[in-house]
Known about the structure:
By secondary structure, the protein is of the alpha+beta class. The longest helix is centred in the N-terminal third of the chain and has 20 residues, at 101-120. The two termini are 47 Å apart. It is 37% helix and 19% strand. It is globular, with a radius of gyration of 25 Å. The chain has 18 helices and 24 strands. Strand 5 (400-402) and strand 6 form a beta hairpin. Strands 15, 16, 17, 18, 19, 22, 23 and 24 form an 8-stranded mixed β-sheet that branches. A 6-stranded mixed β-sheet has the order 1-5-6-10-13-12, with no helix packed on it. This is Non-reducing end beta-L-arabinofuranosidase-like GH127 catalytic domain-containing protein. InterPro entries: 6-hairpin_glycosidase_sf, Beta-AFase-like_GH127_cat. Pfam families: Beta-AFase-like_GH127_cat.
Amino acid sequence: xxxxxxxxxxxxxxxxxxxxxxxxxxxxxxxxxxxxxxxxxxxxxxxxxxxxxxxxxxxxxxxxxxxxxxxxxxxxxxxxxxxxxxxxxxxxxxxxxxxxxxxxxxxxxxxxxxxxxxxxxxxxxxxxxxxxxxxxxxxxxxxxxxxxxxxxxxxxxxxxxxxxxxxxxxxxxxxxxxxxxxxxxxxxxxxxxxxxxxxxxxxxxxxxxxxxxxxxxxxxxxxxxxxxxxxxxxxxxxxxxxxxxxxxxxxxxxxxxxxxxxxxxxxxxxxxxxxxxxxxxxxxxxxxxxxxxxxxxxxxxxxxxxxxxxxxxxxxxxxxxxxxxxxxxxxxxxxxxxxxxxxxxxxxxxxxxxxxxxxxxxxxxxxxxxxxxxxxxxxxxxxxxxxxxxxxxxxxxxxxxxxxxxxxxxxxxxxxxxxxxxxxxxxxxxxxxxxxxxxxxxxxxxxxxxxxxxxxxxxxxxxxxxxxxxxxxxxxxxxxxxxxxxxxxxxxxxxxxxxxxxxxxxxxxxxxxxxxxxxxxxxxxxxxxxxxxxxxxxxxxxxxxxxxxxxxxxxxxxxxxxxxxxxxxxxxxxxxxxxxxxxxxxxxxxxxxxxxxxxxxxxxxxxx
Length: 608
């Protein structure tokens, strides 16, 4: 079964956890000023007012204000200018989904500025870094990721064109391509392969996008030139070319291979993507969170214990692996990819966004007693600031997928959302609600245990379909579900493998679906007596300031925790505490932990 996304304008989040995080992100996008976003582009083009140089430093970020950007965007920084491309991509998606007029006006101002920079340089160059960076690459001299940097601006322009049908953005990108085309043509194959070994950014993906958008054969030429043999041929030969390799230099390349397959149909690109996933995930495993990197490096296969530290799980790698899983879900319909996405959404994308400020944590530390190190609105601009703002504009598109004729819609993520899907000459409206468990107490509240007044251990949702004709709704059965799913319409719902199928007969129909779960222990792959704790897809963090060992039997680790502080007014809370331990530890969902020290993994000692 092949799937496709619901159109951007037809799927939208409803109130809930993911929408609240999206709103935080939207406020951050809107707070950034066009002139500040373009400060380095103006400097490179030699245009604009630069009176801010009269006061280049202040005592604090509060004194400096929000009108200039620092960190990786400081004038003179080697990656200056990279963030504006991420910002354009995020804003384009937010505007396409929500129709946000304020962001649209800001985006137009940024496009005005880029157009001016391109016009007043040489009619082509529009980046915030000089052409000399390409010469440094040619000469093998030290330079920090110029193609990564330039790709971001091209990516932003392409996304503005694709999501908003903005022809000006496409024209800017096409003119900017010309100096890069001449540069590439100035190299023979061997010398260009040496450059690709240094860095390529996501250029392969943008060439595929531009080929699709324009049909211009120069983009097919560039697509072929950016085939990195050492990586791609190694994968096709069945070699582990990832262990100890920088992760987020290769994931964008494979995302480029995926787009190359989708645009050209050449099967070799698909085989590269499938081989990459096999080595990156199937043959490697993951931390309990779904992440797989430490210090930005791929861990060895199923060897994670020695890689727990303060710099595990880079946010950019999490975001891009979610994108890759989404590709494979669409190609195959296999819902195991949706399980992978869910783990990384909760324990990566949400866990690495501050729940009050909306800022990003570059890494998610998995060493005991660490804290998340949060970025600031204008003082850092790490690469992960960019993947942060993009990630939180894309949740709605991960909920609903349709098959080729839209007669079957798949619900892949349990996120409150709605969608309108064309079916023949009609339209089907779907809504996914997460039901409030506040009043769900009593004999049936928890697996039928008579008189149990504790928090129900299940996810309940309501699927509402309003369509004039019959259609099917496919609902993922998550990997964490225990026991048989429960529905309010057993006569219309059947189970097939890893999914429930709702046969909608036409008209308006609402069906409740429930999946039970339990507190479970998740061992680190190569150290089975060191465990994390999870409920459903959500990993729990223990609030401790150091590495703490628990006493007990690792094979019965869930018995070491008891429910704690579980009810506030009308809300059930997923909280726990240790029992029978020398140190009392309270556990909270990892995505709710903001500034407290915490631990995810706990050695369990003393069991028989």
